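Late entry, evening session. Most of the bench is empty. Finally got around to the prediction I had been postponing all week. Sequence below, unchanged from the version circulated by S.P.
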Amino acid sequence: MSAGIVIIGSGFAARSLVKNIRKLDSAVPLTLIAADSIDEYNKPDLSHVISEAQSADDLLRQPAGEFAEQFNLRLFPHTIITAIDAEAQVVKSVDKQWQYDKLVLATGAKAFVPPLPGREHMLTLNSLQEYRACENRLRDAASVLIVGAGLIGCELAMDFRRTGKTVTLLDNAASILPSLMPPEVSSRLQHSLTSLGVRLLLSSRLQQLTASANGICAQLEDERCVEADVVIAATGLSPEVSLAQAAGVETRRGIVVNAALQTSNPQIYALGDCAEINGRVLPFLQPAQLSAITLAKNLLGNSAQLALPAMLVKVKTPLMPLHLAGETARRDLNWQITTHPQGMVAKGLDADEKLRAFVVSEERMKEAFALLKALAL
């Protein structure tokens, strides 16, 4: 009997892969192993869970058992894989092991917590498990410090502030969303945050966190202390590559895969937040969806190559949502920005006047798809 396909991980990428495999083959043995409960939830909902007054249970979409029955697979929840024997094609936990014909690593990424004194005082909101562990503290907190003014940090800052909490958003950079767009483009969102009452501490470096009588004291490099009931790390994601590394699979920032989603070991594949595709880690839904479609075909003996189109990234800040695409972080682009009461359109042009990036906001977001077609590849 075939050992079949073993998938490690239970996030969006893993579940998309299961669904795509079952569209093509209803019988190939499928085993899914994960450290969490394997209950389904929508991870982007975590960005507005406080303003929606949702508990962890409210976010659940489909119980693990129902998922297993619907897609005919064996599930092993609350199971930590301790080792992969790539030569024997076996994955191991403390008390079990599973043979595989093909192995898929969908191990995701963990929230990066800055390595500074008092880092244990920081909360992260990168999974339903993490939210469940701290939801009472977050709901009861009157003041919140968010470290990191990127995509998640800005979404959380607006979400917490909409509930009336005192919110401080801190970043080393001089502007918000520094890795996604230049300051002149993000300034409209920055104004929206400050108008809402979010306190911005930009060009500020956190030195340490200490417990205080008023909650937590965040000491900055200039020796100021910011008091908050809770501190949330929103400083990016770090791909989970330790299992792959221990198995001798090539890793850089993520698990290195080719256009077939295959790692340096021909029987091991990777997709989702843990995978490094063409030198990039892409923690967004569209590349995970397209990767799952491609990988399902390859696991079943076909030969498919992943082709990623220009992708639209959505910033879910309710009072000023944004769509962006292209090389928005390039510093050599000439940005042409028009602002209206209805929203902003920013186009990043290269030296040849070719459209390389764009950002649109609010009611102007409907223009995103036409701009996406016009992007120079």
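Two things to note before I forget:
The chain has a mean pLDDT of 94.
The longest strand covers residues 206-212.
Will write this up properly tomorrow.
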